[in-house]
Amino acid sequence: MLDLPAPDTLYAALVSRDPSYEGRALVGVTTTGIFCRLTCPARKPRPENCRWFADAAAAQAAGFRPCRRCHPVAEAGASGLVADLTARLQADPARRWSEADQVELGLDPSTVRRAFQRHFGQSFLQMARTTRLRNAVNSLKKGEKMIDAQLEAGFESASGFRAAFSRLFGHAPHQLRDGADLRADWIDTPLGGMIAITDEGTLHLLEFTDRKALPEGLRKLSAMVGGRIGLGRNAVTDLVEQELRAYFKGTGPLFSVPVTLHGTDFQRQVWQQLRRIPAGQTLSYKQLAQRIGKPNAVRAVARSNATNRIALVVPCHRVIGADGSMTGYAGGLWRKQRLIEAERAYAAQTGAGL
Fold it and tell me: Per-domain residue ranges for the chain?
């Protein structure tokens, strides 16, 4: 689902010179034989004269030459450094990266930071830190001692490890107890890691790990269940991971996993309505308020949308501004845009919203 968006979406981005497409798409102009970045200042071609490519290599393989005004091959170099550093991170996930390490590789840290922000919505150093925490979660799940998990994850001090872990989970590692009713685990997706909290029957929370409100959401959930949250997974976690994989592959836009919605009656009403919005379609906050029979409660609907703790399964990303703008997504507007584009492209291919 995260391949190139539909041509209409790409053409609109080309006309508006949308910078969020830097590193994600290029346009080849059939009348000139030149390919450009979507932010190129040159006069825009007609839509029927456009071909779309994911990278410079694909455009050149199709016989197009790079534009001398916007230098799309230079942007491809930025994509190359993203691929190189991502591969280095996968090869040595416990490494404590710094800007000095990037300089030793002949890279400019500011260029690296911008490139990773465009591709992933976070810096390379943030991604490296999150990767180390994921490894710590895996170690603790295996029953390893906290000091071993700390060192394996590349944290020199116990206090630093506890602080980083608490920022993510809302609790220090030792407070995620054995024999708990709820289980917390990490799930990797193409748009970043997610924390899933489940019991033996339902999903209670699914959030991207870099969401600022995640620790607070976890603390509230922990308080609701008397602190009975531990590390690990069960059959529901496996189902969530399986359905997320199908969703991102574009083979299964619907989620069947049962959910427990922790909120007021009004909030649950909003969240249940969100689940009725088909993939490939969007609503405004006003339209959502009208659908629950409370047309004057637009602000309350927006607040409920923002407090949703089950991302994607309860698709709050499908609510946009009345003018069509990408507004208010705690998981990051860059994610919201990519999710909506991917779902629209999928719906267009299948002929209907699902």
Answer: 7-74, 75-125, 176-354
List of E strands, the chain = 26-29, 34-37, 50-53, 65-66, 182-187, 194-198, 203-208, 229-231, 283-284, 319-320
Pick the catalytic residue: 36, 196, 311, 340? 36
Domain 176-354 indexed as CATH 2.40.50.90 = no
Radius of gyration of the chain (CA): 22
* Residue-wise pLDDT tens digits, 89-101: 888 887 889 999 9
Q: Which residue has the tokens 């450009």?
A: 36
Tell whether 50 is in a known binding site. Answer: no
Please say whether the beta carbons of 278 and 347 come within 8 A. yes
Q: What residues of the chain score a pLDDT lower than 50?
A: 353-354
Q: Is 36 a catalytic residue?
A: yes
- Largest separation between any pair of C-alpha atoms in the chain: 66
Selected catalytic residue, list 38, 257, 316, 347? 316
Architecture of the domain spanning 7-74: 3-Layer(aba) Sandwich (3.40)
Confirm whether 316 is a catalytic residue. Answer: yes
301-315 residue pLDDT tens:
999 999 999 999 999
> Which of 241, 236, 252 is closest to 203 using CA atoms?
236
